[in-house]
Write a structure and sequence with these properties.
185 residues; TIM Barrel; 8-stranded parallel β-sheet; 6 helices; 18% strand
Length: 185
């Protein structure tokens, strides 16, 4: 390939339907949650509350369990860290995801502006939240079914519903691809 010829775009992967997100409040049940998550789904490691060395150790423990279940392992962090730690992708606001071959890039969005930015960044998927009231933001607003669908229709990539989600809420929303902290742990 000559230096002037552009590199081919990596093939888009089909994103799984279920996404387990880690958090300080579900840490004690993550081993169980990963063991019971149906094979071939995804795990997003956040654990912002931990110091770097401890966070890395916990990531390694949980990533091993996730991989045993054939799950994608996504890191909330930058691309260099995700590559160093052996993650399959990164998770965060669209402006922080950069462009890195070989990594899935999953943007967080809470409204039309972030959907626009995620589309422009050509991410692989968008976590749209909060679909419903959530313990992560007690008393905060939520999108609800109509606004969620209106915003999801603006996305150029698969949308993952987040915020107060569980299997019943996914049916209520009429959305096959969803993520949870409490709803899967």
């Amino acid at each position: 390939m000559s230096p002037r010829q552009p590199r081919p775009e990596p093939a888009r992967r089909v994103l799984p339907d279920l996404w387990l997100l880690s958090d300080a409040r579900n840490d004690a049940s993550l081993e169980w949650a990963l063991a019971t998550l149906p094979k071939g789904n995804a795990f997003v490691f956040r654990h912002y509350h931990l110091e770097t060395a401890v966070r890395r150790q916990r990531f390694d423990q949980l990533a091993q369990l996730a991989r045993a279940g054939a799950h994608l392992v996504i890191l909330s962090g930058d691309a260099d860290l995700a590559l160093e730690w052996g993650a399959d992708g990164i998770y965060g606001p669209p402006g922080r995801l950069g462009k890195r071959d070989g990594l899935l890039r999953l943007a967080t969005a809470h409204g039309a502006r972030e959907i626009f930015l995620a589309n422009r960044a050509q991410v692989d998927g968008i976590f749209l939240s909060p679909a419903f009231p959530t313990r992560s933001h007690p008393g905060g607003g939520c999108l609800g079914k109509s606004l969620f669908h209106e915003l999801a229709a603006q996305a150029h990539v698969p949308v993952i519903a987040l915020g107060g989600m569980n299997a019943e809420r996914a049916k209520e929303l009429g959305w096959p691809r969803w993520a949870a902290i409490d709803g899967l742990s």
